[in-house]
Amino acid sequence: MPEAPPPLGLPLGTPVLTPTGEVAVEALVPGMLVLAVGGGAAPFQSVVELRRVLLPGPFVRLRAGALADGSPHDDLVLPPGHAVLLDGTLVTVGDLADDRGILVEAGAALAAVQIVLAGHDAVLACGAAVETAPPEPGSSPCAPRCPPDATLRALLAWRAEAMGWSPPTAPTAPSLEVGSFRARLAASPLTPAAVPSLPIKPTR
Question: What positions does the domain Hedgehog/Intein (Hint) occupy (predicted)?
């Protein structure tokens, strides 16, 4: 018997970006356009279906700015099996929990809405790229689904430190994996800049 997919859904009140601005997920209607950021189709797609669901706890809270500047722009609560799209990879938020910027919380069941587009994609919810519900069981995902690697964990840990959620730690030299996460890490404002070498002028 195939394993049931993890429960997905955006709790009521979660803002979703549309061409006219953010709209609470429960205010969306079929046919309304939303910004789709999975990269597999047009940037604006029509909502095909909206499914009302009841999500059991526990939940994962992504604190504002936990993923990047403005991502999410406010605290975002998701079920542990829901994935966010990070640099072309789907990563479940339960795997990202670190007790700093991304917290697991117990709680009563929450009313939520599953957004269904023509294909599996991601929308901007609270400024974070969050996957939509697959239109059919077994639908192809919009991106590879992978666990977080060491580079992503290091980046999130440094963000948590910069936001004041964890004490400073001794600098380490994590092994950076090939790919765009490495470029993001190098571009992080937390990465020390190289000291330029200055020419030595001969003395007279």
Answer: 13-134
